UniProtKB/TrEMBL annotation:
Residues 25-36 have a biased composition (Basic and acidic residues). Residues 1-91 are annotated as: Disordered. It is an enzyme of class 3 (hydrolase). One of its GO terms (molecular function) is cysteine-type endopeptidase activity. Keywords: Apoptosis, Cytoplasm, Hydrolase, Nucleus, Phosphoprotein, Protease, Repeat, Thiol protease, Zymogen. Residues 100-222 form the Caspase family p20 domain. This is Caspase-8. Belongs to the peptidase C14A family. The active site is at H177, C218. It comes from Cirrhinus molitorella. It catalyses: Strict requirement for Asp at position P1 and has a preferred cleavage sequence of (Leu/Asp/Val)-Glu-Thr-Asp-|-(Gly/Ser/Ala). One of its GO terms (cellular component) is protein-containing complex.
Amino acid sequence: MGILGVLAKMGKTGAASNKCQGNENEQKKVKASNESKRKKPVRRNSQGDKENLPECVQKTNRSKRKRAPLEPTGNISDHYPKKKRAVSTQRELYSMSNRPHGYCLIINNFNFEGTSLGNRRGTHKDKDDLTRVFKKMSFKVEVQEDLQASDMQNVIKEFAGRDHSQMDAFVCCILSHGEKGSVLGIDGKPVPIRELTQPFAECHTLVKKPKLFFIQACQGKEAQKGVLMKDGQENPIEEGIFEEDSHTATSHSVPVDADFLIGIATVESYRSFRHIKDGSIFIQELCNQLESGCPKKEDIHSILTKVNNIVSAKILQGCKQMPEVRYTLTKTLILPID
């Protein structure tokens, strides 16, 4: 065989050998690729894989969601129903279930002849009307008349020492001359209002029960002047003879403890007025509003607000009178009336 023939044969053998070697290398690459795929499966939904991807790939792989068109805010309640909240409109009331509801003490001081003060003409009308109204309210009314200062204190202590466990409330009405923070006995000596209320604050059988005090007396010697009003607004002028329940002013204060209500004919430092036949302006209006409001189930605060409004609108001997109510009631008080 010639040289050309040998070379040709070697070429064919080398080509076949290279071809086989190439095929082996391709098979090894495919096998290695398949093994790597089996060892490291691709988790397309894994958050970690997404984080490792370039930002541009992350953006392209995000699914685009179609947003619902915006709706008027008036229709939001259809999609998000509101929870209904139970709103309680019921008032917490003091219990008034016993008969009688309680004692009503009326101290009526008329005769001041042994002093520089005049007798309190017209006060018996106040006493009679208060007795009638509180009896209609099923209170047990007891009247004490013409008491000296020491006697007033003793009577108060005696009532505070009674057993009120079968009672709902206590009422005390004091009709006398007065001064700032005090009322006077018929001997002209003052009794601080605190000494009238404090014994009942310490009464265990009246704890958490309403204790009401209505005081017809001046709280000073100053005359309360009115203010100018708009055209067409006029205050009714009371006709007749009025007197003052006043004395010199002192510095006593009027305290209020728990579950108390103290209604006074006038604010501190000023005079209050009493008609010599028809009774005092404050007590008479109090009786009127109690008889009018209690059958309608009006609470005591609403009733006394009306009293303040009517009394303050009057002109009495060219002066005004503004009653004052102080209270620490913890519930709504409605006084039943027959």
